[in-house]
Amino acid sequence: MPTDTTTATPVSSSGPWDAKLQQFHGGQEWAQLSNFVEDFSVTTNPFGMPGAAKLAAAHSIEHSHHYPPADQEPAKSSLARFLWPSEFETERDRLILGNGASELIDLVIRMAPAGTWRPGPFYTQYKEYERSARNNNFTMLSPNTNDKANVACLVNPCNPTGDYLELPELKAWISSNVLPGGYAIIDESMQPWHSEHFREHSLVSQREYVEELYREQGISVFVMHSWTKLWCCTGLRLGSVVCPTAEHMRAIKKIQVPWSVNTVALAFLNAVVDDAEYLKNTWELTPAWRKATVDRLQEQFPEWEFHGREFLSWIWIDTKDASVAEKAVELARAAGVPVRSGRPGYNLPTFIRVAVRHPAKVDVLVGALKAI
Q1: Do the Cβ atoms of 339 and 356 come closer than 8 Å?
Q2: Other Cβ atoms closer than 10 A to 206
Q3: Rounded CA gap, 367 and 247, in Å?
């Protein structure tokens, strides 16, 4: 099994990143490519921004000379209705929106009990949690340690590895890895891809469990979402966190800067939750396109290993050779279809991450990689 160091790896090219201060992320090369075709370096929905929500966002510019609503309404209630179709009125007081999940990650970790921090059980995961924990002077624990932590952060499904814990496994992991009085932050940003029944498999549906854990052990469970992936709106910056209690939500609101979610993002969210056809296409075609892409690459590169659950919007690939992975990244970029290298940030130089995309766009990527 590959081993990830727990420090950020400097970016080889200067690009837009300050390698000493920022955590590397995909999605930055497209604007510099004169022959750009498709961005395979990010895990966004292959169907692009939903049309009706995009139009609502554009129309909201007409009202952008006014401040956004300080209570985030009606968008917050609309998202609550999406998450809890029957119980949204009683659940929405635990929900708060943010300027992407990244803002909320930092806010929750800042108000967490001081001490130790640990990641999920996988050999690497999305690094923003670690970056925030380091900035807030937590003592970092290895994912392989048996020690419980004051704050534990698990990305589920795990980006980039594609691992996924079902609810019984997830609850067991929380019990085994979080100290009494601690915080468990579970990132379910990619979980809605699961299926139309995603809610039944999500911690969002487990209010009784969350309340009991807080009441009996003082463990606070936060469920984090970045909505910019599912609804392909990364430029808008839109996230949310479901808190264990309304009191926790108010504690976040107290330290959150006002109007952190702008008028355009709120208008987009308020509309997009009603686009059932978009989600139907996502659940039906993402697994099919993913399998077709894996099959094509596997036929061309039988020595490569392909990781991740079948419903996910990306493929995590171990090429087994750092020079091969580097060549794949170079060829993809040159063809206008950039992929995510596993070297910067994750320090896994034999790996690449490839987004699930329309088969016609995959043709360009597969053609480019034939030169390896």
Answers
A1: no
A2: 16
A3: 54
DSSP state of 40: B
How far is 221 from 184, CA to CA, in rounded Å? 5
Q: Please measure the distance between the N-terminal and C-terminal CA atoms of the chain and give it in whole angstroms.
A: 25
What separation in angstroms does the CA of 187 have from each of 69, 86, 222, 322?
A: 26, 23, 8, 29
pLDDT the model gives residue 135? 95
Contact 184, 221 (CB under 8 A): yes
Please state whether beta strands 220-226 and 178-187 pair in parallel, antiparallel, or not at all (unpaired): parallel
DSSP code at position 339: B
Beta-strand runs (E) in 54-200: 95-98, 116-119, 139-140, 149-155, 178-187
Phi, psi of 37 (to 5 degrees): -115, -55
State the average pLDDT over residues 197-219.
Answer: 98
SS3 66: coil
Q: Which of 164, 157, 177 is CA-nearest to residue 221? A: 177
What pLDDT sits at residue 21?
55
**pTM (two decimals):** 0.92
The residue among 270, 250, 272, 252 whose CA lies nearest residue 262 is 270
Amino acid letter, 142: S
Distance of CA 58 to the CA centre of its chain: 25
Q: Distance between CA 89 and CA 356 in Å, rounded?
A: 35
